[in-house]
């Protein structure tokens, strides 16, 4: 059985997820790429292997319980435990529409991936994370999730005129998952935190972000490798704490 630390990254075949995988792989982690598309996951794992990183692909659609259960069983059978879960998979479907013009189906589909999918994966993987001596969970959030910043006239959301009900509120809900799971796990070694990677150029925003994936992944890697006295139940970017 593999004895190195394992990390599962949902949506890990591209963007911030893939860069987080690359950086953690360089630190010696065994990388498990969770991907809806099996071939894309395998391509990502092969790319990491070319950099001498121990990596493999798992078919994992966060909205499909069967794939979640299959991935969980495979990790349990092959590794016995999971050291780090990075809940990276997410969608942005608003297409710039203001709240009053949003279709209910868009809101539902956004939550299906960003919130319910994250919950489903976390719940399924938690028994394996509890078997790790120092489990870590990183939930990909966004500065746009901050209610405090959203009412600040000097915030980026105001500066760029961003008002995406489905995406932004789903990431606020992600932060709630972080806080409430942290409360449940407070007497365990597990640490769970929300990460804001900043406005990073990825497929999610049509590569309009001004930050590189290397910059965006930095806070993810930091929270994934927190020491035993590190924080839990928090919301962070690379500069520190973000207000709720």
TrEMBL record:
This is SDR family oxidoreductase. Keywords: NADP, Oxidoreductase. InterPro entries: CBR1-like (IPR045313), NAD(P)-bd_dom_sf (IPR036291), SDR_fam (IPR002347). Belongs to the short-chain dehydrogenases/reductases (SDR) family. Pfam families: adh_short.
């Amino acid at each position: 059985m593999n004895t190195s630390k394992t990390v599962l990254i949902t949506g890990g075949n591209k963007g911030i997820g893939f860069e987080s995988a690359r950086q953690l792989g360089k630190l010696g982690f065994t990388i498990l790429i969770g991907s809806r598309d099996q071939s894309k996951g395998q391509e990502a794992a092969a790319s990491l292997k070319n950099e001498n990183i121990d990596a493999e692909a798992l078919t994992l659609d966060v909205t499909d319980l069967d794939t979640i259960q299959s991935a969980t069983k495979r990790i349990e059978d092959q590794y016995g435990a999971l050291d780090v879960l990075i809940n990276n998979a997410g969608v942005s479907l608003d297409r710039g529409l203001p709240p009053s013009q949003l279709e209910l189906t868009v809101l539902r589909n956004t939550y299906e991936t960003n919130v319910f999918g994250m919950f489903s994966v976390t719940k399924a993987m938690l028994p394996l994370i509890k078997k790790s001596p120092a489990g870590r969970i990183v939930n990909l959030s966004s500065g746009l999730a901050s209610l405090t910043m959203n009412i600040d006239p000097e915030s980026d959301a105001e500066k760029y005129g961003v008002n995406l009900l489905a995406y932004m509120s789903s990431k606020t809900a992600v932060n709630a998952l972080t806080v409430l799971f942290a409360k449940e796990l407070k007497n365990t070694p597990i640490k769970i935190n929300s990460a804001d990677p900043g406005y990073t150029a990825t497929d999610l925003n049509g590569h309009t972000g001004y930050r590189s994936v290397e910059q965006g992944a930095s806070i993810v890697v930091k929270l994934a490798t927190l020491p035993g006295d590190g924080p839990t139940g928090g919301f962070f970017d690379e500069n520190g704490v973000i207000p709720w």
